[in-house]
Task: structure prediction
Amino acid sequence: MQVFHAPLTDRHNPQSFLVLGSIRVAAEQPERRHRLLSAAAAAGHDIQEAPPPPPLALERVHTSDYLGFLRTAHAEWSANPAAAPEVIPNLHPNRHMAAHPHPGTGIVGRAGWYQADGACPIGPHTWEAALASAGCAVAAADAVLAGAEAAYALCRPPGHHAYSDLAGGFCYLNNVAIAAEVLLQRYDRVAILDIDVHHGNGTQGIFWRRADVLTLSIHADPTRYYPYFAGFADEVGEGAGAGFNLNLPLPHGSGDAAVLAALDTALARIKDFDAGTVLIALGLDAADADPLGVFAVSTQGFETIGQRLTQLDRPLVLVQEGGYLCDALGASLAAVLRGVG
Amino acid sequence: MQVFHAPLTDRHNPQSFLVLGSIRVAAEQPERRHRLLSAAAAAGHDIQEAPPPPPLALERVHTSDYLGFLRTAHAEWSANPAAAPEVIPNLHPNRHMAAHPHPGTGIVGRAGWYQADGACPIGPHTWEAALASAGCAVAAADAVLAGAEAAYALCRPPGHHAYSDLAGGFCYLNNVAIAAEVLLQRYDRVAILDIDVHHGNGTQGIFWRRADVLTLSIHADPTRYYPYFAGFADEVGEGAGAGFNLNLPLPHGSGDAAVLAALDTALARIKDFDAGTVLIALGLDAADADPLGVFAVSTQGFETIGQRLTQLDRPLVLVQEGGYLCDALGASLAAVLRGVG
Result:
């Protein structure tokens, strides 16, 4: 399988993650690319460096204001000598300000407007790394347009928590949504199936009102888990998109049996939708060995997931999302790719 | 003038203020009560300790879910050995989740639901101090109901950024709103005039749809200043409350002339409304010597503000909001109280 990566993504090396009242180093580290790349190479896949994405590919998903913020935020922030090394928001629009229409002009207000949480710090090289990461997703979509049966984008930073105008949860540009828009140039209907242990809230939000992109997500029950306020089963889309979002939250501790049963439900919905091509938001943090420890999917379970995806008999674009440093990380990826075949 | 304070409020001693990407000690410190109390005592005012507020007074303003959160949040948070000493939210509902109806059950999600920003840490004694602070406001309102022409509540933590179900900006219980509800037992119409350098967004939100409480706020332009997403001149209330909110944002750097001109506009509106009694959300952080340094109101300016308030010829309840440690803090308060006479 063609595997697209970008060494430039290593330049995003986030040091600030606000969690439980403290600022710590984030788990979304450059070493993730190295581990995943080694595993893919060892399995004999066709490793390629992805070029930067065409600007138009980003603009189909993200607002120009948001892209401008991501590009200049760190420089604006750093102009204040009292500012920390990375941009972290400390306030946000709230539910009583729902009608408020604009982010203001200062960097603190704009950070709170365009960054959803304390898990998406912007450092000096975040923008170029996010661009390079999106480039991997575009390259994998292009490979499928060129005839490949499947392709894998080794994206980091990941993308599925990013909305059209809002970063969050280690994500800045929604790579899988960007790839979906590339595929929509050929296909009338595409499906995005998210198997990261966290709900793909950004992807859901981007396509919330659209019937041409079916979004599905299998993830840990958000009642007590990120993103907390989205990912419930009653979120089905609105307007033209009503019925084109399917959330399958599962209890914490779920293992192969529960995840594979949810996968079968999702695959049946995708077949019914008759997607021309299918994108997988491939989080590997559901692994039993993942440091998050929320789900307990085995390496064999990941291989079975890959096998069942092929039963769709549609071209597949796999886009890396979460999955954190542990001995099983590379093995989980290799298992999925082996299953897809 | 009767001055109501509560030594118990000293037990709220917040150590965690997320600002510019770092966690620092907050400016809203117990020493503020000591400085303000000393100034009021030196000026010969009648110093009294306020009793705790009756629960019903809180419940007229705040939801029971929110009060429950404030009461138990620190204990829930502290049950996690990895948690920092004070509750700080790291994620929040966002504008793409507007329809989401509930905060979930875990403390991290509930913190993000009930705490608007990184400036309202909850420590082990925040709840009892916030209660005692609200007690000061209730006592001052009761004094006016008992016949006083004016009374002053030395509240801290302050209250005007707190909504019915949301803490923020050093505020937990909206003291001036609670006092307003006490006064509404006697008066058909009350006005709340906020002269803190920050917009009184919580107070505005609480009475947003009501015609019996006129809310007015004179404050620094929020385009680049807290609370950033509220406080603009086009926010006038909705439904029955349409026309009963008046925001008077002023440029940063405004001094006596600009603030007094805005005050005259506000006082004319209050006269037109024919409020039976008037509450002042008395921030002193507009002082030229305040460490915030955003406005430049002189000590004489504060005395003139006090004098003009008496021209309303209505009972006045003054409720302390912001104003931070500097040599002028006590002098600013003494000047306002002298002006009111």
User: Anything to note?
Assistant: Chain A has a mean pLDDT of 97.
